[in-house]
Amino acid sequence: xxxxxxxxxxxxxxxxxxxxxxxxxxxxxxxxxxxxxxxxxxxxxxxxxxxxxxxxxxxxxxxxxxxxxxxxxxxxxxxxxxxxxxxxxxxxxxxxxxxxxxxxxxxxxxxxxxxxxxxxxxxxxxxxxxxxxxxxxxxxxxxxxxxxxxxxxxxxxxxxxxxxxxxxxxxxxxxx
Length: 176
Prior knowledge:
By secondary structure, this protein is an alpha+beta fold. The protein has two domains: about 5-90, Zinc finger, CHC2-typedomain (DNA Primase, Chain A); about 100-170.
């Protein structure tokens, strides 16, 4: 892992995206949104999600992380964006020497973050699939003749999905 990668990860951990964007644009965030600086915006459409470290504007289809925002907003390359953030927010990360132990710890943190992101995305996809299956069950139960084999099948599927949704909410492990 190169020093720039380590500094990149440390900036991500120490600096909220909303803080950087507010300082750069001079705007205050309201309900997670500001006027998008990348198009002629009249209604706040740039969505800032600090928990994910990402921004997105559905109106102009611009999005990314803190580095992408700085690169686009200031017209910098990646390395200059890191340098800018380090100096602008007095992080002083580029001047520090990074020990082997710190490098190993940062690698482990990055690995853990990627694993958590993978799990989150996988769970989100599974949840979306469950929602789609649930909608199919509801529509099918509404349209089919009650107590037919197919109607009973969808009723059973709906019951299983209800159980799985309850498990997600309660943190259980198994349906009865």
